[in-house]
Design brief:
Elements lengths: L1 H33 L4 H12 L4 H11 L4 H20 L3 H14 L2 H8 L30 H23 L7 H21 L5 H19 L26
Helix pairs in contact: 1-9, 3-8, 4-5, 4-7, 5-7, 7-8, 7-9, 8-9
């Protein structure tokens, strides 16, 4: 009887081991940059992108980059889906999904950007490659990690859950596994490429955003939205809303 128990224990720990690995990767990358490593790589990639960006491609990249725009695209789409599911299910739970991803991204991505103080490739002042740049301030020093990439991973994960919830409320089939995976993977991948190619961020900014975004979306995926206790709410509005992720 011990073997099955051991198997369950290992399976329960494996996902957290991956989270720890992602966090360790983010920390190692940040320390490496703070010590002056990988800066040449950043500069070479940015220089290459600057010489391989014809006007038609630039326009296309700018349009595609909006897939990672939190305030103008991702938040309104997620809020609309959350509102529709909440209205159809007469449940507050979809709105809590929106609130959770908003708070989680707000208290992690922004503060890290402010603290680490890295300028973007377009910055024309001194030490534009380094972290903790004393010559840049405000929005000029908020390049690391890439908020577009991190936001895309976190928000599209929630959008996929809310979209399936809406389809269930309409008695329609949920997204097929491949479509569900594509919605979660393709937009962040496109944003990663465009934000680097457009030189909005150094490539290590985008890698850091990828690592941080994976951590955030995995944390959100662990929350049992339909069963998590909601004490103190009026009876009925805490009913399940069909927000379970595909198995």
């Amino acid at each position: 009887m011990r073997a099955p128990a051991a198997t369950v224990t290992k399976r329960g720990r494996l996902p957290w081991l991956l989270d720890l690995a992602l966090l360790a990767g983010f920390v190692v990358l940040t320390v490496a940059l703070a010590r002056g490593h990988l800066l040449t790589l950043d500069e070479r990639v940015a220089d290459w992108a600057g010489t391989h960006r014809p006007t038609p491609l630039y326009v296309l990249l700018r349009v595609l980059n909006y897939l990672g725009q939190g305030g103008q695209v991702l938040m309104p789409v997620a809020l609309l889906l959350a509102g529709l599911v909440a209205w159809r299910r007469r449940s507050v739970r979809p709105l809590l999904v929106f609130a959770a991803v908003f708070v989680l991204t707000y208290v992690t991505i922004g503060p890290l950007k402010i603290w680490l103080g890295r300028a973007a490739p377009a910055f024309d002042g001194p030490d534009r490659l380094v972290l903790f740049n004393a010559h840049a301030s405000g929005i000029e020093a908020m390049s690391y990690p890439s908020g577009h990439v991190a936001n895309a991973l976190a928000w599209y994960g929630v959008i996929a859950v809310l979209l399936n919830g809406l389809l269930r409320s309409l008695d329609r089939p949920v997204l097929p596994p491949r479509a569900y995976l594509a919605l979660r993977v393709l937009p962040p991948a496109i944003v990663f490429c465009t934000t680097t190619w457009l030189a909005f961020h150094w490539i290590t900014d985008s890698v850091a955003g990828l690592l941080l975004g994976l951590i955030l979306t995995r944390l959100l995926a662990r929350i049992p939205w339909d069963t998590i206790p909601l004490p103190g709410l009026p009876r009925g509005i805490d009913r399940p809303a069909g927000l379970q992720a595909p198995q």
